[in-house]
Structure formats: structure tokens, C-alpha cells
Specification:
Its EC number is 2.7.7.60. It contains eight helices and eleven strands. By secondary structure, it is α/β, with parallel strands linked by helices. A seven-stranded mixed β-sheet has the order 5-4-1-6-10-7-11, with helices on both faces. A two-stranded antiparallel ribbon has the order 2-3. It has a two-stranded antiparallel ribbon with strand order 8-9. It binds cytidine-5'-triphosphate (CTP) and the ligand C[C@](O)(CO)[C@H](O)COP(=O)(O)O.
């Protein structure tokens, strides 16, 4: 080994789980929203492409899909000439179960930083992904989030009351963690109703917040797809 190679800095391995195991009920389309076309390509392909950027150095990207949709994804990969390396894993009944299945695939990995990202967030800037991985390497747990732009009110029996929006954040993904921490958190089945990873981890470890991006839309209802088309244009 040359002396240069011996002294090269070693980055903690990075992994990613792209959860796309849902059925897209709120979208009400003829297929799960991760397969809908955005600028001529499946939503999930846009997302996968972002995590495949060489600059991020992600060692393994796991795509979690409904088992019944494996063939659809394979056909889409062939149709769109998708050569991006990734591992397909079957999802579960809930987002929590899908993340847990993705994590189980990494059981042999001793350490690293793992990003959990919604397969239906196709517009996440690379800078947000990088900043979230980097913050998790320092703090153990980091998520992307933005401040609400509108005034926010809480509901009460009597009516409603003002909330201080500067103390609120709208949670996005990616959500990045030390691998061992996320594993421990996902061993607790009593947390299985949570729909984001920070909520699953927070009793074990504080969650650091990284500035997200207003373009980092989650495709949930039909107007989100229109917005995403416009933003990509
Ligand atoms: N059993 C599930 C449910 C959700 N997800 C994924 O978690 C992300 C965020 O969930 P959401 O937007 O709620 O997706 P759906 O469950 O598909 O939508 P809906 O709630 O409208 O049915 C999506 O990428 C979705 O595919 C998953 O992997 N497995
Ligand atoms: C993880 C998430 O994207 C954060 O906003 C969100 O919780 C996903 O699930 P939901 O079912 O749309 O709440």
C-alpha cells in the first residue's frame, strides 16, 4: 500500500432506504403514485437518481416496494433503461414495517450512516441530502425540515388559538441516523404507528434539524404532481 493510500481519510459508509411500499390512496390514481410519470419518467426513478449521485458516495441503495409490484418495477427499469444499482426489498403493511424490512437487509453491516427517504420525494436537492448525511455523522440523528410559511393555529374545544410558527417545523425526508441507533429504534413494535423515522428514534436520541427545501415536495395528492412538473420544468 502506498503512503498516500494509507493516510487517505475513510468516510463512514453511507446507505439509503427509499420507501416506496405504499399504495397511494390519497392520490387515487390507477397505480401506486411512485410509478406515475413525472416528465416522462416514474416518480421513483427521479428519487433513485438523486441518491445514486456519485458525489454522495452511497454504498447501497435499498428500494422498498409492495411485493405485488416487483414485476411492474422490473418492467419500468427495462423500459427506461435504468442501470442505477439498487436492491429491491418487499414492503410491509405500514411505512414503519417497510423501513424495518429495508433495515433487515443491512443486518450484516457493522456501522454507517443510513438515510431513510420517501420514494415519492423526487425533487430533493442534492445539497439537502448531503447536509443531512453530514449532520447525522456528527449528531447521530438528523432530519430535513422547513418552517411553515403560513400562520398556524391549533384547535381547541372553544375554537382555535395562535401558534408561534418560528417554533414549528414541517418534517421532510431524508432522515439520517447512525445505523445502530436506527436498528435499536426499529426493534420497538410499540412505535409502529409512527409515519416518520424521527418519531421512532426520538426517545433514544435527540433529533438534529437541517434546513430542508420548499421544493422537496412529497407527492401525496394530484396537485403535488402538477407542482412537481412545474418545478422540474
Ligand atoms: N406500507 C407502506 C406505506 C408507505 N410507504 C412509503 O412511505 C412514503 C410516504 O408515505 P405516503 O405518502 O403516506 O404514501 P402512501 O402510503 O402510498 O399514500 P397514502 O397514505 O395516500 O395511501 C411513500 O413513499 C410510501 O410509498 C411504504 O414504503 N410502505
Ligand atoms: C416521513 C414524512 O414524509 C414526513 O413528512 C411523512 O410522515 C410520510 O408519511 P405520511 O403518511 O404522509 O404522514
Amino acid at each position: 500500500m502506498s503512503s498516500a493510500a494509507a493516510s487517505a481519510p475513510t468516510q463512514t459508509p453511507r446507505f439509503a432506504i427509499l420507501v416506496a411500499g405504499g399504495s397511494g390512496t390519497r392520490m387515487g390514481a390507477d397505480r401506486p403514485k411512485q410509478f406515475l410519470e413525472l416528465r416522462g419518467e416514474p416518480v421513483l426513478l427521479h428519487t433513485l437518481r438523486r441518491f445514486s449521485e456519485a458525489a454522495l458516495g452511497v454504498q447501497e441503495c435499498i428500494v422498498v416496494l409492495p411485493a405485488a409490484q416487483f414485476e411492474t418495477w422490473q418492467q419500468l427499469c427495462t423500459l427506461h433503461h435504468i442501470k442505477l444499482p439498487h436492491t429491491v426489498v418487499a414492503g410491509g403493511e405500514s411505512r414503519w414495517a417497510s423501513v424495518r424490512n429495508g433495515l433487515a437487509h443491512l443486518n450484516a453491516q457493522p456501522a454507517g450512516i443510513i438515510a431513510v427517504h420517501d420514494g415519492v420525494r423526487p425533487l430533493t436537492p442534492l445539497s439537502v441530502i448531503e447536509a443531512t448525511y453530514a449532520a447525522a455523522a456528527v449528531h447521530g440523528a438528523a432530519i430535513a425540515a422547513v418552517t411553515p410559511k403560513d400562520s398556524v393555529r391549533g384547535l381547541s374545544k372553544e375554537g382555535s388559538y395562535a401558534l408561534d410558527r418560528s417554533r414549528l417545523r414541517l418534517v421532510q425526508t431524508p432522515q439520517c441516523f447512525e445505523l445502530g441507533l436506527l436498528r435499536r429504534a426499529y426493534q420497538l413494535p410499540e412505535l409502529s404507528t409512527f409515519t416518520d423515522d424521527a418519531s421512532v428514534v426520538e426517545d433514544l436520541h435527540p433529533i438534529h434539524i437541517v434546513p430542508g427545501d420548499y421544493r422537496n415536495l412529497k407527492i401525496t395528492t394530484p396537485e403535488d404532481l402538477l407542482l412537481a412538473e412545474a418545478l422540474l420544468g
